[in-house]
Amino acid sequence: MKSFSQVIIIAFIFISFLLFLPNLTKERNFKTYTDSQLRATANAKGLKAIPNSYEELLKISDDENNPINLKKIALGKELFFDTKLSLDDTISCATCHMISKNSDDKKIILNAITSKKTPNDLKDANNCVICHLSDESGTDRLSTSIGYKGATNPHHLNTMTILNSSLAKYLTWNGEIKTLEQQISNSIQAPSKMNIKADDLVKKLKNDKKYISDFKEVFKDEIKENQDYLSFENIQKAIAVYVKTLLTRSSFDEFLEGNNESISKDAKRGLVNFMNFGCSGCHTGMSVGGQSVQRFPLRHFAGIHDLRPNLGSPPDFKIIDETFPFENKGGYLGRSDTQFFRVPILRNVTKTSPYFHNGAVDKIREAVEIMGRHQVGLNLSDQQIDEIVEFLKTLEGNVVDYSKDAKVIK
């Protein structure tokens, strides 16, 4: 049996080894890029620019089964903002997917937050809506979404942004819904959301002569004989077409199109980090996310993961025993309880806090640090995190008005 002094010596040697381990391993030296090389690499990794014209929009989003035209877009927009789409006429799609700066569209959210009946966890610091009512975020910025009569999501899931969602292959946290029409149906009929049955909604809208006229005008060339113009299917189609126009362009798109001055040097270094560290492996496509369903977290950083040097940084001994690196309010575990989640869209991500499926993290820097440690296995330095955040800021953009150059109504 080893003496106490021997144990102390062994422990001292082991700890010293851990402390000097980063110095025994060279830092990773990543390639430096010219602006044109950086742009080409970003494109090669699937990071593409958002269309800047109606013609380009049609190339990527038009569907022969639900063709895009200006009249259908206008009808879809009217439906999107209409509270008639909920059982008690209090909630519209725009209630949870905020894209308007009109304070009237946010009353239901404010009333829910200030109500005495609202659970305390809806009033916590992670709810960002109060300070960001004017943001066109495409979400309500609550840690958990609310719906009919202020009901909270049963799994404590927060609302995904509607902006750029038409570019995603997967539309829900578990990735089970893959089309806009499916998601629209789910949102309208779910008891915790708008809570109105399809047939009841159609009956309600048929009491509005303008809707009857508008649906006939929009769908007269698309429906078969003896079919109803104003149907639940056509409600879904009109809203889906409108959602396809909710794309945001930013300074990053300008960079991808050749403007080297549109983003800063720090943002360019952040883009290099974003690609070299592996972030772009999942956060890809025009939407910079939403293209796959991935396990989260991949690493718990208990045991051997903490002993590995990352970019020359010292090992971190923080042990996390929970399923997630934050409190999992609601207990949601993703697809079939396997911890597989839809990869979030990062466009406008700096405007869509709080982060992760249950809104547990309200700061973008903390979210980046968590993803570095628990998803790609890196202890990112403060500088690296700052640079990545600067890149993410270049994804902030406004909704494109595609109607300006749409000369032909199909």
TrEMBL record:
The residues listed in the UniProt record as binding heme c 1, with positions renumbered to this chain, are 93, 96-97
UniProt's post-translational modification comment states: Binds 2 heme groups per subunit.
The record ties this protein, via InterPro entries, to: Cyt_c-like_dom, Cyt_c-like_dom_sf, Cytochrome_c_Peroxidase/MauG, Di-haem_cyt_c_peroxidsae, MauG/Cytc_peroxidase
Q: Transmembrane segments in this chain: where? A: 6-24
Q: Does the keyword Membrane apply?
A: yes
One GO term in the molecular function aspect is:
cytochrome-c peroxidase activity
Which keywords, in A-to-Z order, does the entry hold? Heme, Iron, Membrane, Metal-binding, Oxidoreductase, Periplasm, Signal, Transmembrane, Transmembrane helix
Gene3D superfamilies found in the cross-reference section: Cytochrome c-like domain
Gene Ontology CC annotations of this record: periplasmic space
Signal peptide interval: none
Protein name according to UniProt: Cytochrome c domain-containing protein
Species for this entry: Arcobacter caeni
